[in-house]
């Protein structure tokens, strides 16, 4: 350690310990940020204003307000994928999952630029924006989320997504799929195509099927749901299937990979899909969740691997392939941590600490992260998987003690977990964007 | 330690630290003293797999054979599985191309080794490290239907076939592929129960034998490519009890 000031070292340790829990709780005020303030504190550019990017920008400023932080996000507001399935079910309005950047700007002094980041020069340490501006950075954080592999499923491209929505980036696509569900005739079939791992939000497709089933059972009771899956196992599978039987009888049919569930071709005009072994399925509403990869700017920065995702050093989430570039959230390879908003938020705090430490000339300390994936099988029926993660032998691993909700729990237990899900959403939205409900 | 040096150490691939793939015992036995070439055999695997129970893998021979020689077989091994054999493909005629995809089981992070052997004893090798992160999210459906025998053989032919061009075929049969190493709910081991092989004959001539093993994923899946010259395809799956499932298809040539 280069710094020998004992008080400084102590306060830094307190600070990073607080982070270690990477929880949603605000850091205790004893974690003084003043100690880290210095005159040439450094410039950080953060690309992406979702769970990962907004959290990183905010926490760098909290830890050291003297650091110059610029957040680049193309959209003026952000719609979360978490809780977007409630919007599809008509249980929540789209604007109730919308967040803005006012708190980041006004309270934390983050410079927010609404432009598209088009290129990164990792040698010159610059980012080129769609406005023509070029930003210089000392540390760059990429939290670009996912992009879709258009045409990885034959016939499924951007134009097809206007007819058969993915709704796997929330916003206009969510509204489109909701409208289609409202317009669907009673007795129709909602067909969903689910990709192989890895993809954003592992339990998300099954929560979606659940909440769409809830909507259909109330408004279009003769309708069915068909899930065509490119996997043989899925997140919280036993809990979902038990909940489906309890709440929706046989309304939801799930077809696994080895029962010919993998969709290989889409005809968006006919709302028809074809699977690997030649079965064709006709949909009334077709939801194709396509195979995915790290957001475009990660590719431009040269930090992706052959699989299209970003290998990172688990300790700091710095890219394995480029110095001074940190990549978090869905774009990074953090498995067994899932690609979730909670993970991105937790990773954002660790990266903020790592960057603040490295700009001040310190090593970073051993972090731990936590993640909980809440899923709603019905509006009053919640299930969870929770884990704590740490670094062992230079790899991210799940610590013992995590787990999932029990099978065969009482309705009161499921209702309580649904309430926790709402509490979680409000807490993380406030922590990330300062949204108050 | 300087930042750069540290970064270099961190990014050292596992394969540089591990033993030579050719020295792994089952591989050495197969090589029988020949020195394998390290270029020419393509192994396509993800660097991280979130579910070790079915990892998609591709193996493709792109090397140069000497005049008069022909490729005899392709093999896959896993260095840290309880039994290293994953699958083997025996090319029984020139109708079958050395280009396959399948799904394998990896019980932990480890190295996967691919070997190709020619009739005249030349060999090729390729290896790749895979990190397996068994997701804690996976809770199996306790009520899922359990099958014990071979069911639902599936064969997919391309929609369009151009005369004389290679034809891609996909095959799958439902089967649990019990390894003999897995305990049931009471803790006693479920006996080994595997589909042993898939044989393909084209116009009654043997063209391919796929040998499955403990390391082949449940519901054995094989994508293969044949020369579009033959017409009658005869697929035969055989399990360890000697049961056989036969499926015939015609290429619309």
Q: Helicity range of the residues of chain A?
A: 25-40%
Q: Biggest sheet of chain B, in brief?
A: 9 strands, mixed
Tally of individual domains of chain A: 2
| Mean pLDDT, all residues of chain A | 92
Any idea what the radius of gyration of chain B is? 20 Å
The SS-based structural class of chain B is mainly beta
Give the end-to-end Cα distance of chain A, rounded to a whole number of Å: 43 Å
**Residue share in helix of chain B:** under 10%
Shape of chain A: globular
Number of strands of chain A: 25
**Residue share in β-strands of chain A:** 15-25%
Q: Specify the CATH class of chain B.
A: Mainly Beta
Q: pLDDT below 50 for ≥5 consecutive residues: which ranges of chain B?
A: 1-17
Tell me the span between the first and last alpha carbons of chain B: 66 Å
CATH topology of the largest domain in chain A: FAD/NAD(P)-binding domain
Shape designation of chain B: globular
Biggest sheet of chain A, strands in spatial order? Answer: 5-2-1-9-20
Largest sheet of chain A, in brief, is:
5 strands, parallel
The CATH superfamily of the largest domain in chain A is known as FAD/NAD(P)-binding domain
Give the SSE order of chain B as H and E letters. Answer: HHHEEEEEEEEEEEEEEE
Describe the oligomeric state of these chains in a short phrase: heterodimer
GO molecular function (chain A): flavin adenine dinucleotide binding; oxidoreductase activity
Protein name (chain A): Sulfide dehydrogenase (Flavocytochrome c) flavoprotein subunit
Keywords (chain A): FAD, Flavoprotein
InterPro entries (chain A): FAD/NAD-bd_sf, FAD/NAD-binding_dom, FAD/NAD-linked_Rdtase_dimer_sf, FCSD_central, FlavoCytC_S_DH_flav-bd, FlavoCytC_S_DH_flav-bd_sf, SQRD, TAT_signal
């Amino acid at each position: 350690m280069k710094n020998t000031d004992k008080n400084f070292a102590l306060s830094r340790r307190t600070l990073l310990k607080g982070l270690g829990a990477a929880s949603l709780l605000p850091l205790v005020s004893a974690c003084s940020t003043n100690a880290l303030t210095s005159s040439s504190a450094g410039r950080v550019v953060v690309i992406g204003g979702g769970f990962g990017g907004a959290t990183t920008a905010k926490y760098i400023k909290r830890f050291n307000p003297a650091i110059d932080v610029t957040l680049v996000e193309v959209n003026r507001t952000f719609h979360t994928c978490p809780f977007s399935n409630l919007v599809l079910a008509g249980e929540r309005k789209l604007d109730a999952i919308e967040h803005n950047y006012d708190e980041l700007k006004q309270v934390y002094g983050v410079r927010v630029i609404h432009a598209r980041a088009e290129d990164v020069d990792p040698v010159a340490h610059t980012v080129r924006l769609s406005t023509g501006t070029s930003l210089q950075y000392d540390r760059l954080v990429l939290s670009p989320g996912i992009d879709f592999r258009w045409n990885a499923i034959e016939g499924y491209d951007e134009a097809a997504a206007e007819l058969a929505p993915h709704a796997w980036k929330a916003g206009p696509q969510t509204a489109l799929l909701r409208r289609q569900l409202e317009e669907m005739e009673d007795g129709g079939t909602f067909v969903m195509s689910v990709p192989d791992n890895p993809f954003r939000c592992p339990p998300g497709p099954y929560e979606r099927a659940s909440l769409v089933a809830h909507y259909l059972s109330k408004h279009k009771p003769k309708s069915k749901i068909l899930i065509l899956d490119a996997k043989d196992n899925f997140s919280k599978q036993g809990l979902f299937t038990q909940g489906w039987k309890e709440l929706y009888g046989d309304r939801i049919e799930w077809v696994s990979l080895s029962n010919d569930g993998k969709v290989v071709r889409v005809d968006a005009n006919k709302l028809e899909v074809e699977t690997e072994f030649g079965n064709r399925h006709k949909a009334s509403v077709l939801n194709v969740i396509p195979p995915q990869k790290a957001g475009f700017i990660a590719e431009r920065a040269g930090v992706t691997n052959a699989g299209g995702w970003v290998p990172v050093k688990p300790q700091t989430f710095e890219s394995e392939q480029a110095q001074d570039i940190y990549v978090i959230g869905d774009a990074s390879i953090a498995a067994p941590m899932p690609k979730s908003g909670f993970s991105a938020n937790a990773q954002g705090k660790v990266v903020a600490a790592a960057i603040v430490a490295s700009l001040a000339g310190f090593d970073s300390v051993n972090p731990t992260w936590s993640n909980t994936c809440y899923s709603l099988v019905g509006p009053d029926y919640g299930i969870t998987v929770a884990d704590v993660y740490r670094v062992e032998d230079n790899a991210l691993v799940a610590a013992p003690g995590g787990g999932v909700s029990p099978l065969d729990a009482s309705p009161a237990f499921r209702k309580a977990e649904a309430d926790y899900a709402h509490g979680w959403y409000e807490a993380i939205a406030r922590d990330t964007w300062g949204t108050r409900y | 330690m300087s930042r750069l040096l540290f970064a270099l150490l961190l990014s050292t691939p596992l394969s540089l630290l591990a033993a030579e793939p050719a020295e792994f015992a089952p591989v050495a036995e197969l090589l029988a003293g020949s020195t394998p070439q390290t270029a020419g055999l393509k192994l396509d695997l993800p660097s991280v797999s979130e579910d070790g129970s079915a990892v998609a893998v591709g193996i493709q021979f792109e090397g140069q054979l000497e005049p008069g020689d022909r490729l005899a077989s392709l093999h896959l091994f896993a260095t840290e599985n309880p039994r290293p054999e994953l699958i083997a493909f025996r090319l029984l005629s020139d109708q079958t191309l050395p280009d396959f995809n399948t799904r394998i089981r990896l019980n932990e992070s480890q190295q996967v080794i691919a070997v190709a052997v020619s009739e005249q004893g030349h060999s090729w090798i390729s290896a790749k490290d895979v990190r397996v992160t068994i997701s804690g999210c996976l809770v199996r459906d306790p009520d899922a239907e359990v099958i014990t025998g071979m069911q639902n053989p599936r064969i997919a032919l391309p929609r369009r076939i151009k005369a004389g061009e290679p034809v891609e075929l996909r095959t799958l049969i439902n089967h649990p592929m019990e390894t003999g190493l897995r305990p049931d709910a009471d803790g006693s081991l479920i006996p080994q129960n595997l589909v042993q092989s898939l044989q393909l004959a084209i116009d009654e001539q043997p063209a391919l034998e796929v040998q499955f093993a403990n390391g082949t994923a449940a519901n054995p899946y094989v994508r293969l490519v044949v020369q579009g010259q033959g017409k009658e395809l005869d697929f035969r799956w055989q399990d360890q009890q000697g049961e056989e499932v036969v499926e015939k298809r015609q290429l619309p040539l």
